[in-house]
Amino acid sequence: MTADRTRPVGTGSTGSGKASTRELILDTAERLFAEQGIFATSNRRIAEAAGQGNNWVAGYHFGSKADLVRAITHRFRAEVERSRMQMLAGLDDSAGLEELLGCLVRPWTDRFEALGPNSYFARVCAQAMNSPTLRPIVVEEGSHSDSLERTWEALDKYLPGRADLSTELRRGVMRDLIVFVCAEREGALAEGRPTSRKTWADEANGLIDALQGIITASMTDLSPSPVRRRPYGRVT
Q1: Cα separation of 236 and 229, whole Å?
Q2: 15-30, pLDDT tens digit by residue?
Q3: Bridge partners for 235 per DSSP
Q4: What confidence tens digit (pLDDT) does each residue in 37-71 have?
Q5: Are 20 and 61 in contact (CB under 8 A)?
Q6: In angstroms, rounded to a whole number, what is the distance separating the alpha carbons of residues 99 and 96?
């Protein structure tokens, strides 16, 4: 898969002018967000760490902090999208649940493996998912993924119920599990702490095992209710 960001953080991408400055700001902000926290990192700190004289350079190129998180998420999703599309293209009609779940998990774990010590996104994503203001940004970015939509459509046949609250809940739990397990491993590697599994490939296998349990668990019959809950606690 593409691994063009396996370079020392802070060197920027090839090229010149605004494009390379934007990449440098993204690299620096992603690292600082992962290490120090999204809301604890100021634009001034990003500029200083990136070696930029203008303290407002991050705002100039990306706008608000939420816009910067969106740009970081979009960049990571673009790499994952390419990888997942390749995986889906390699499947045939005989592909089973394990192979399809691999299309959910392995584009993430393969990307983190390729980035090595420059892997920060999982920790940034986990923080954003825990923020009421940033979580919708991450979820929205994911909704633009054609490969992800194709994968979920293929997985629908394995769910015990379709287009109901159980399916919505399981998808959310599966998404969060991937994010937070990857964030925990990424953080442990960065801090030199022991990890539960030896490699990212092993972590992917463990996640796939867990996701199979979530997606195939039996569904408890519920009494009919006149109230249907919507995302973020709204009801009608």
Answers
A1: 7
A2: 456 669 899 999 999 9
A3: 229
A4: 999 999 999 999 999 988 889 988 998 999 999 99
A5: no
A6: 6
